[in-house]
Amino acid sequence: MSDFVSSFWSGYVAIVTLLSILACVVLLKAMSSKRAAGPSAPETHGHVWDEDLQEYNNPLPRWWMGLFYITIVFGLLYLVFYPGLGSFTGIYDWSSRGQYEKETQQAAAQYDPIFAKYAKQDIPALAANREAHAIGERLFLINCAQCHGSDARGGFGFPNLTDNDWLWGGDPKTIETTILDGRTGVMPAWGAVLGEQGVKEVANYVLSLSGSKNDPQLAKLGKEKFAATCAACHGPDGKGNQTIGAPNLTDNIWLFGGSEKTLIETISNGRTGTMPAWKGFLGKEKVHLLAAFVYSLSHESGAQPAQPAAEAESEKPEEEKK
Amino acid sequence: MNAQLPVHNLTLAKTAAPAAAEQEEALYEIRKKIYPRAVSGWFAGWRVFFVVLTQVIFYGLAWMQWNGRQAVLFDLAARKFYILGVVFWPQDFIFLTALLVICALSLFLFTAVAGRLWCGYACPQTVYTEMFMWIEQKIEGSRLQRQRLDSLPWGVHKIAVKGAKHAVWIAIALWTGFTFVGYFTPIRALSHEVATLGLGPWETFWILFYGFATYGNAGWMREQVCKYMCPYARFQGVMFDRDTLVITYDAERGEPRGFRSRDIDYKAAGLGTCVDCGICVQVCPVGIDIRKGLQYECIGCAACIDGCDQVMDKMRYPRGLIRYTTENALENHLAWKQMVQRIFHPRVLIYTAILWSIIFAVGAALYLRQPLKVNVIRDRGTLVREVENGVLENVYRLQIMNTDEAPHGYFASASGLNAIRLITEKQPIEVPAVSSMTVPVRVQAAPGEIKPGAYPIQFHVQSSEDKSVAVSEKSIFLIR
């Protein structure tokens, strides 16, 4: 606990502190009266501003001096109650760590029962619970929105959580596991294996899987290469594999973008996506509520009339401006 | 050149007076208790009026209701300040600044015209001291009775009288503390808490602290606050000039002072009109002798004018030996009309003009204030996403603050780029009364082939009922 390497320094600091306070008392006492030979000269402080402005040396009221003594008494009492005198921790035994622990204990006593109550309920039930949903939303905005966005629709390299298209599976249990333990999805680089032309062919074949604009001839050539190199993870029909996080390539939902250019980049250089594990930071009970919130984003339930399905657009004021 | 009035320092003369022999001299001055004599008259009447007015407002306003809530309430926890029909948010801080500017300029103006009017009539220190002295006088008696009581040794009678006085003082001080806290915690709930002994620790602390400050300042410290603590008191004196009305003893008329019978011709006896009765000194709450000239301790309460006028009436001399007059008027024997004309000199007129223009500006700003505020918070993590067919999407959170005391719906939209549109869960966005709501919104645009970068866009939030309630906010849209 103590910052001192030997008890000597603690005692040394304590004595210096007490001597300093004592010196203040002595100084105050010595300076509160003076030996004067009658009404001598010191009428003003001797400074002159603006040609004729002078400062009188008037006596301070005695109660003002009393305030100085009060600060000394306060200082001594402080040293008795709080740490300050060497390694003596004071009778209150206060420390910033102790205060922090006390406050976390108080918070735990207040909030743990709430989390414990929800931990017992299953995720679809929680998704329909307004209060649980609100807690989950706050947790999401604090911890998840940095990558997945405030609206949970993801971004470049971060999956959209509202579309019911899942890399690792969207059943309640799997969502919870994903948040608890994190995920790492790796797509290897195939540029060296396939060659520039091969990559282009495979990219066009992949585009054809989701019915996107593609060059049918290149796609035809790419089909075989896909079966040889990609089907191991993405499946022969390109529908992906949730056990290893291989995305479905047929649904026109893209994690890193779905243009020919980005697909060539993806296939040539590979991709790595990481979802960190939240078990250690948030704890199981909070992750449970988060999982319920994420589940609710793609599963409409009675309690959530305002979820993504009802996307009102902002056309009204827009039209008025035009 | 010195346009300022000479302010005499008499403390110096007092300390410098004693004998020449070497002696131990205390550098700290022990306060000499002042026993002001009660006085009545025109100025005393005005002071009573201001004491009653300010205190009726202070004690009464806290209980007034408005729209089913406390009329004046400073809700620090929720950071909402209710003043009659207006709700101020932290974003309205500029109005507090404006209020302080108005207060400061008013102080300058009043001081330039007639000296320390604030100190003499409206300052809480004066008002509470006045109240406490009135109680003291009712319980302990007149000036002489109070002096005699203090010189007596402690006994049953003295303890009873002093105890009664302090009990009443403390009761008023606690009520004042309670009322003060009642402007920050709804006073009706607070009175219920007091009745059931359910006060929170901070409420208890502030009631006791404010009560203690009232009791200490008005009961014990009194003129010491003005003399040693108050910065206003010190710099107000500097703002006087030769055409400022100040309380002045007309030495030319009064001197040489001296006791005399009412019936003799004082002029023949070589005397002035001052009968040297000492009433002006006895009534002074700061314990000075106004006949020695303007002093920094003088709070401009005009008690000496009332006191002197009474004596003048009894002597059948003209009133106004001590009166409000200006240095110029006294020196040049100006008539009342001339003096008043000179008061409206450029300095006073400039203060007045600035003051009124600020008051009008603040009034207009308050009148035109929108009961709606909007913050746009761009998502920092997700820069830009591609939706489909070259449509790009940015994510924002709109914080919509409805400062009105009724729930309202708002339409949000965006402008500034090709085919820009704002998508959110639900429009209009319903925001409850006096609260803020943060909604995630997506903004999509099809900018076509333009350089990647940050482009300025505008958000527009408009009330669904009242089209004139609308706010536009700037933000940026990222394009890649």
Commentary on this structure:
The complex is a heterodimer of chains A (322) and B (480). Chain A is mainly α and 322 residues long. Chain A contains 13 helices and six strands. Chain A has helices spanning 7-31, 62-81, 96-119, 123-127, 130-143, 145-148, 172-181, 191-209, 216-234, 260-269, 279-282, 284-298, 315-321, and strands spanning 33-37, 44-49, 53-56, 60-61, 183-187, 271-275. Chain A starts with 6 loop residues before the first helix and ends with a helix. The model of chain A is unreliable at 302-322 (pLDDT under 50). Chain B is elongated and about 110 Å long. Chain B has a domain at 372-479: Immunoglobulin-like. In chain B, helix 2 (42-61) crosses helix 5 (124-140) and helix 3 runs antiparallel to helix 17. The N and C termini of chain B lie far apart (70 Å). The longest helix of chain B has 26 residues, at 156-181. Chains A and B meet through strand 1, strand 4, helix 2, helix 6 and helix 13 of A and helix 1, strand 1, strand 2, helix 10 and strand 11 of B.
